[in-house]
Specification:
Shape: globular
CATH superfamily of the largest domain: FAD/NAD(P)-binding domain
Bound molecules: flavin-adenine dinucleotide
Number of domains: 2
Largest sheet: 7 strands, mixed
CATH topology of the largest domain: FAD/NAD(P)-binding domain
Low-confidence stretches: none
CATH class of the largest domain: Alpha Beta
Oligomer: single chain
Strand content: 15-25%
Helix content: 25-40%
CATH architecture of the largest domain: 3-Layer(bba) Sandwich
Length: 453
């Protein structure tokens, strides 16, 4: 059944040069890069009451370093880490055989640093607004429609950058979008949470001293002698817990040390079959993931050393979405491109994270490693047909397997910086983003310290 929504006039709240929708890792970087020369009016829209997106849910940032150990994500993402480090709110980039590197950040300081960065370059931030429509003239985007407690309003923009993770703007603008693998299967979401009171030394000792019992996927046990580590393994313990009747939704125990000595972030809930673009599906996911926390905690207490006295401290504000829509852009990056480390003349990001597909069903994961870092071309940010729009972050133009590599936050930040830079350079040149001279975008990124191989 459908009903007719009458057409109506709506107020124009603002008219800007560059409008970024979504204030996660890609959006914050896009807005900053768009505004950093001070010659354009830039606005950032965010549906939640804080900036940072998935940077605020207790995840480590993976793969600032590439497979060969050199730093591949630099530029504005690295400056963001430097700002956090000045506040004691980010660790070093720790090399890791599985993840290439990981960097823990403090979620609360992430929110503050993102807000400070926007203020510093004069980006107008508007929170608690949901982008629910697009204004177009022909095939060119001219702005968006937002919905808030005020009702509906329009924001006009010369260029819009979609950093919503779900491709909300692109989808509404009629850009062709895809979800998941050939059967529509998407990587499942996870609700992150933090435990305190963990005896991290006991966990470390168990892994280092009894590797045959406390098995790790692909990671040498020597990696666990340092202060910070991520466990991915303990498959045998999960088997035992299942034999004891515990319904564990994943096959691997993923635990991340936090900034405080007794803090562990748990990445083990998962709700297969969720589609975050369908609210009833996402609702079921949230409720189920919250219920899973209890059983996972029982597993940790009974089967994993160090958790005997642990208590639940924080449940992240929302269940994180690994995968939903991706757009079809001027180029669709594939896993074959990544594995072949294909070179692109219009590379705007060089990334190092392997293809890491959390299976849509069954609780396991496939990882495909590359020998070295790989190029990501500018064309993945540019929709195939619709003009005036760039799409950065996990919804850029990649197939299911490729986005399983490019989705990590270091890469998403770099994609965001590239989109913001391209939008600014295109306006300076008086051309649409699809026609920008990419060598000028690359020069702009290099000037800001990016690594492009
Ligand atoms: C459980 C889980 C574990 C992961 N593990 C890691 C890890 O260990 N390390 C790592 O580096 N990466 C990890 N990732 C991947 C990474 O977190 C994401 O792929 C990345 O954050 C995507 O960045 P983004 O900017 O594209 O989107 P997001 O981080 O999702 O940000 C999108 C922002 O847009 C806002 N928004 C969305 N729609 C609208 C709208 N219509 N209007 C206004 N605002 C809107 C959202 O509120 C949000 O703030 C993980 C992801 C998940 C879910």
């Amino acid at each position: 059944m459908t009903v007719f929504e009458p057409a109506r006039e709506i107020p124009v709240r603002a008219s800007v040069d560059i409008l970024v929708v979504g204030g996660g890792p890609s959006g914050v970087m896009a807005a900053y890069a768009a505004a950093r020369k001070g010659n354009h009016k830039v606005m950032l829209l965010e549906s939640r009451g804080f900036l940072g997106g998935n940077l605020t849910i207790g995840l480590p940032i993976l793969a600032f370093l590439g497979p060969k150990g050199n730093q591949v994500i630099k530029g504005e993402p690295q400056k963001f880490i430097d700002r956090l480090r000045e506040r004691g709110a980010a660790t070093d980039h720790y090399p890791c055989k599985l993840h290439k590197s990981f960097t823990m950040v403090d979620a609360e300081e992430v929110k503050n640093v993102c807000a400070d960065m926007m203020e510093e370059v004069g980006v107008e931030v508007l929170m608690y607004v949901f982008c629910c429509g697009v204004l177009k003239e022909g095939e060119q985007v001219k702005g968006v429609i937002i919905e808030s407690k005020c009702g509906r309003e329009a924001i006009l923009a010369k260029t819009v950058i979609d950093c919503t993770g779900d491709g909300d703007v692109a989808f509404r603008a009629g850009v062709e979008c895809h979800k998941g693998d050939a059967d529509g299967g998407m990587q499942p979401p996870t609700l992150m949470y933090q435990l305190r009171g963990v005896d991290v030394q006991a966990l470390r000792d168990a892994i280092v001293q009894r590797p045959e019992v406390f098995d790790m996927d692909n990671m040498p046990h020597s990696q666990f002698t340092r202060r910070h580590f991520i466990t991915v393994g303990l498959r045998g313990m999960i088997d035992k817990a299942r034999e004891a009747g515990l319904d564990i939704p994943v096959n691997r125990t993923i635990l991340i040390t936090g900034l405080k000595p007794d803090e562990i972030w748990v990445n083990m809930t998962r709700v297969s079959g969720t589609d975050s673009t369908e609210p009833s599906s996402y609702t079921h996911c949230e409720i189920t993931a919250h219920r899973q926390i209890k059983v996972i905690n029982e597993y940790l207490r009974r089967f994993v050393p160090g958790f005997e006295n642990a208590h639940l401290e924080i449940v992240s504000p929302f269940t994180g979405i690994r995968e939903s829509r991706v757009i079809v852009g001027k180029y669709v990056l594939t896993a074959e491109d990544i594995v072949a480390m294909k070179k692109f003349d219009d590379a705007v990001v060089v990334a190092g994270y392997p293809v890491d597909i959390h299976h849509s069903k069954g609780g396991d994961c496939t990882m495909i490693f590359t020998e070295d870092a790989y190029d990501i071309p500018y064309r993945v940010l540019v929709p195939e047909k619709v003009e005036g729009l760039l799409v950065a972050g996990r919804c850029s133009s990649m197939n299911h397997e490729a986005m399983a590599g490019t989705r990590v936050m270091s890469t998403c930040m770099a994609l965001g910086e590239a989109a913001g830079s391209a939008a600014r350079v295109a306006l300076e040149e008086g051309v649409l983003p699809s026609a920008v001279d990419v060598s000028k975008v690359r020069a702009d990124l290099l000037e800001n310290g990016a690594y492009l191989g």
